[in-house]
Write a structure and sequence with these properties.
The chain is an all-alpha fold and about 100 residues long. It has three helices and no strands. Helix 2 packs antiparallel against helix 3.
């Protein structure tokens, strides 16, 4: 389980840094986090090394944080991007209609 958490964590972190791809990594990152926690708890009872599980926990937690930060950045930038698009369309005199906000 520790190795699975580690591999999922690596993939989730890489995908998390790519804008809009992080959403595909959110659920696997949560699953990897749970796998890492379960692995560390099981191995702590038997006094086995749990380095892979701990690394999986750290990587999956980092992936979740990165995904949330990207989400907040894009949510904050959405109104500015919309205004920029509307201004560019007006200046270009191109008859394009944007969706109307309610």
């Amino acid at each position: 389980m520790g190795l699975a958490a580690l591999i999922i964590g690596i993939v989730a972190v890489v995908l998390g840094f790519i804008p809009f791809c992080g959403y595909f990594a959110l659920i696997p990152a949560i699953v990897g986090l749970v796998l890492g926690i379960v692995d560390v708890k099981r191995k702590s009872k038997t006094q086995e090394p749990s380095g892979k599980g701990k690394a999986g926990i750290v990587l999956n937690a980092a992936a979740i944080i990165v995904i949330l930060v990207w989400t907040l950045i894009f949510a904050a930038a959405a109104p500015t991007i919309r205004e920029s698009i509307e201004k560019a369309v007006e200046e270009a005199n191109v008859p394009i209609e944007l969706p109307v906000e309610e």
